[in-house]
Amino acid sequence: MKRVYVFDVDNTLRSTKQQKVLPQTVKLIETLRKQKDYILVLATGRGPSKMDVMDEFSHLFDYKIMVNGAVIVKNDEIIYEDPIDPEDIKMVVEDTKKRGISMGMVGFHHEAVSLIDEHIEYALKGYTTVRPTIDPIFYLKEHVYQLWVFHKDSNELEKIAKSYPQFQHFFWHYGGVDLVYPRVSKDNAVKVVMKNFPGYELICVGDGQNDLEMIRHADIGILMGNSRWQEDSKDIEKLIAPHVEEDKLFDFFKENNLL
May I ask the CATH class of domain 3-81+184-255? Predict the structure, then answer.
């Protein structure tokens, strides 16, 4: 059978708590890679400059969907991109400055934030050890594919995100939110990739809010047991994989005849 496997990164392939890809997941990726009729795809909210956490396994994937679908890379070349209009970025920069909080911008090679404060330190804990540069006019120099806004109070963060109607928002597990255009999504990017593979079965695996639509549209959708979006996915026909910390993903795929 010909298949395309799409995997989210954080808390799907990689344990954020342990900051590594666990043994059964390594075994799963390596086993799938050995099949010539399988296409492997990473799909993440991370920007290219934060993909170093997957460096050890990067060569095993045919495509990388990044910044929630705003960029698709094949063989280290951009084959699709959808950057944010500088005027929309300027609005968020000025608004967050008035609120006294930090915002961030995701480019291809670099990421920048308007300032470093307690909110961004809280949000990035466990996500990366590398702090972005401070540059509130970064968007005037490079394409920006995604914005971040940070706040420790989840209710306040939700209010702020909803005040930007031109963007859709994907909340982190804590402290941050991704802002992208409504037309940008992992699901849309997966559809772009799938145009190259008619007749292939699509299997999508993830745990985040930004994974729900691709899971919905997959032939076989898989939601991780550690997902905080179980309630939001009640209408989606899907399988529930073990919690990422249980390290049972290979066994789960084998038991469900997905290898």
Answer: alpha beta
